[in-house]
Design the sequence.
């Protein structure tokens, strides 16, 4: 059953400690499983001048898992704050938290909007295996992979039910100018050319990304995982490379099939 994991079943009691240093007028949350293109989309917002922050809630959770209660600071330098959060890959705490509820309830965020991304599950699972499968000391969980897809779908449906502006996009389509513009209109935000073509932005620099990235514990660092964003020159449209009969990710595929019914075309 695709929707068996709902917002009510997510853990809202994990220790999340962030300081939002300022008062943004609007907050856009980008939510996806790991390895779904959300870092590139976050960087697109940064290149257009939005304050953009790389998974501050999950950074706080990871610190907490290792006993570090130091808060994650977010410095605001624009009227809109963009936060990207990715789910997974190692621990339940990285999947079973509710970013929407955390931002609205614990941090009293107003004018919240949501962009959800899901990548073709076969491609995404292959990327999880390549990026996280051989990490010393940790092993990613196929169960958490499946649940990450369910959580993203549940968050989108929860937002729509609560009249929170929300857009659903296939990861492969974030580089499509028309689809991205429609998705942004769905969260009351204008499209900027710098989002697609980063070299047009005054914030573009080789081997750098434009967003704030909180310091995470050394144990969670994966070498080279952001190289594509750091060395990129803009968003590009990609194509699904793999389709398989992997039964172990059938739950993710079912969630993805439902998600596609809501995606902007």
Sequence:
């Amino acid at each position: 059953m695709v929707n068996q994991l709902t917002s009510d079943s997510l853990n809202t009691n994990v220790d999340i400690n962030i300081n939002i240093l300022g008062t943004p007028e609007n907050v856009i949350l980008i939510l996806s499983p790991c390895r779904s293109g959300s870092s590139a989309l976050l960087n697109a917002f940064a290149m257009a001048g939005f304050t953009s922050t790389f998974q501050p809630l999950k950074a706080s959770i990871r610190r907490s898992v290792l006993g570090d209660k130091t808060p994650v600071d977010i410095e605001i330098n624009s009227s809109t704050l963009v936060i990207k959060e990715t789910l997974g890959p190692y621990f339940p705490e990285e999947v079973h938290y509710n970013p929407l509820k955390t931002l609205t309830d614990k941090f009293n965020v107003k004018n919240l909007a949501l962009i959800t991304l899901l990548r073709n599950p076969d491609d995404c699972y292959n990327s999880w295996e390549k990026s996280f499968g051989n990490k010393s000391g940790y092993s990613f969980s196929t169960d958490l992979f499946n649940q990450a897809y369910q959580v993203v779908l549940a968050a989108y449906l929860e937002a729509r039910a609560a009249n929170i502006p929300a857009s659903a996009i296939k990861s492969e389509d974030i580089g499509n100018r028309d689809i991205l513009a429609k998705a942004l209109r769905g969260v009351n935000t204008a499209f900027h050319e710098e989002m697609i073509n980063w070299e047009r932005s005054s914030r573009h620099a080789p081997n750098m990304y434009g967003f704030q990235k909180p310091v995470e514990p050394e144990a969670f660092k994966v070498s080279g995982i952001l190289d594509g964003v750091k060395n990129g020159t803009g968003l590009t449209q990609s194509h699904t490379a793999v389709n398989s009969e992997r039964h172990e990710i059938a739950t993710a595929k079912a969630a993805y099939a439902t998600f596609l019914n809501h995606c902007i075309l």
